[in-house]
Amino acid sequence: MSRARVRARIRPSSRLRLTAALAVTLAATTAATVAGPGVAAAAPAALKQEARAGAALPELSTLDSVGGVGATGFLTTQYSKPLWTRYDGTSVLLPSTDGTTYRGAPAADVVVGSKGTRHTVQDMAGGGDPVVIDSPHALRQVNGSTLVMVDDTTNTLHLVSREPGGLTVDRQVTGLPAGKLWVTSPTAPGTVAIQLMSADLSSYRLALVDVATAKVTETYDTGSYGHFVQVTPDRVAWEVAGGGTKVVDRHTKASQVLPYRAQFGLGDWVAAVEDTRLTFRSPKDGRTVEPFRFANQVTPGPEGTFLVRGGTAADGWGVFRVALGADGAPTVTMVADVPDAPELTLKSLSVPSTSTGSARISWEFSQEDPSVRFELTHTATGRTVSPSNYMNPFINWDGTLGNLFGAYNGEYTWKMSALPYYGFGPAVVRTGTLTMNRPVRPRDFNDNGGADALVRDGEGKLSAYEIRQFVGMKDTECYEEGCPPVVHKPNPDLLGTGWNTYTLMASPGNVAGGAAHDIVGRDRDGVLWLHQSEKQKLLPRTKVGGGWQIYNKIVGGSDLNGDGRGDLLATDTSGVLWLYTSTGDAKAPFKARKKIGAGWQQYNLLTAPGNIAGATGGDLLARDKDGVLWLYLGKGDGTFTARRQIGGGWQKYTHIIPAGINPKGVADLYAVGASGSAHYSGLNSTTKPFDGAYTLPLRTDSTTYKTFF
């Protein structure tokens, strides 16, 4: 059906004969909202009053969305048509032909019209003259009759209002934590909730501001950006990444995560919103009530009430007010009618059952441009991703879990939720499974298809960091050429703890015959231990043997004899280089050592990245005490050709590690030090094995990034 036909479809007039007093008793939901100051603003007398003759209920369009709910009515907006609809059946059409835009104050009968720096505050319940406030700040939210504004130049938060005598009062909020003022959430009168973003865009902090004093009273770490922030006298809540609502007791600071979007009001009940399904739940006795076929918008009102855009089996589509009745039980009352339109239906859906790194997902619906959300969840770890379709009828999933982090191998559950383009009607929901089946890749310790840097922190925790998270992330707010790269907070996999027991560590690859990669560590007593990796964890270690205290360097990663398994190299204190070829047996992973040569005491760092210049064997890099890096090409029999000089200046790095295989089929390098880090792309050349350094600001330190290998 075309959009024009959908908009023109009008429900028969008999639908308007529904009684506005119809109430359904529920065993339903939630917590009281914050009380606040009264509203001093007033509505202009010139506003047009529209009463629908012969109809108990006003009629709204499926395109109307609720923008604010008060005690006497609510604001709806459809494109440029703002309308204040009263519960008595009358409505007020707000003038907008001059470009004025409107927003409602949460849980208050206040509407603010804005044009440029001029803001008109109107009390839709009391009438009288409007209050005009002129301010150069950016309006972010309305709290009661107070404008919540931000000065973007100074990054300051302001509460702006008009005194009864006509004086405009601009109060700057004090006590805010450090960070960029980001989003001000709609909250009931009396308290303002604002999120601040850290300088590196990696974390957020929520601050609660008391409107009466213009001071911050509480702060909360939300980690990632918290959607749908709510504040009540007893709790603060926000939606966490991946779904669910974190709820914090404001008195005890105890917290819990509810596995759905929770909204609070109506006493002690909780409104659970899942897609377009709305369920009222009692935490006291476990009762649940689901009066709506669907709910596309749930908006808190004053005194713990809700306004719901949705539909019931008895009344069809409309706007409903949910409140506690005289007997303490919640009631549902239809306050506006919405003409029914054809519901959205799915005509076809194509989701592959398996993927080797990416996937195309496509669909066709009965209506144009539905809003589609597609979410994949890795069954074993619970990590989720919601790739965007950018209004296309398909998704080309790039095989990542976001933030340049490759998707793990294994089973994923997927869920598709679709809403009509006009945002009204029940959702279409489908679910299924998809299996990621990537081939084994070098240095992939967490089974997600990407090379990893193994990092030990100051507490002895060992984590796998996907190297492209270090390399591929630039400043997202810089649009000029030559922008300095910025490393944002990556998403590592914790492999284990207690790694401070090891004085030397290496990652030789697959030495024990398994499908994954192996790690070795030498303890303080000189005993060498083998850790085999399995998906996102390490298996219990096995003892290789003692006597390894004679070595001052251990390095692995190259297949030096061409048997398809990684091998181990070690230098002793006298400068002799020894080769330990792997066996494929976890009980005895290495053969007897073989002497390669002497004089290796001139080098203070070794790296075995694999194939650098296209030869059949694995290669070796060595840095001398003057900072010169040398290349030893492997012959494939456990020996090397004569060394070749790569270049100087490498003394600024404390660690040089393999960075996986590039499209040329040769190894890259990742080098990190106290002054910064760099990525070197392999060129498959013996005369110039690496391209120039791609510099990055990540630095080694004594806490998070202590040891790389």
Commentary on this structure:
This protein is an all-beta fold. It is 2% helix and 45% strand. It contains 2 helices and 59 strands. The strands form 14 sheets. Strands 1-30-29-28-27 form a 5-stranded antiparallel sheet, with no helix packed on it. Strands 2-6-5-4-3 form a 5-stranded antiparallel sheet, with no helix packed on it. It has a 5-stranded mixed sheet with strand order 32-38-37-34-35, with no helix packed on it. β55 and β56 (667-673) form a beta hairpin. The longest helix has 6 residues, at 3-8. It is elongated and about 95 Å long. The two termini are 59 Å apart.
Number of helices: 2
In which order are the strands of the major sheet placed?
1-30-29-28-27
Overall, the morphology is elongated
Distance between the termini: 59 Å
Main beta sheet strand tally, sense and closure = 5 strands, antiparallel
* Quaternary structure state of the chains depicted: single chain
User: Which structural category do the helix and sheet elements fall into?
Assistant: mainly beta
Spans of at least 5 consecutive residues whose pLDDT stays below 50 are 1-55
- Count of beta strands: 59
Percent helix range: under 10%
Rg from alpha-carbon coordinates: 32 Å
Strand content: over 45%
What does the average pLDDT come to?
86
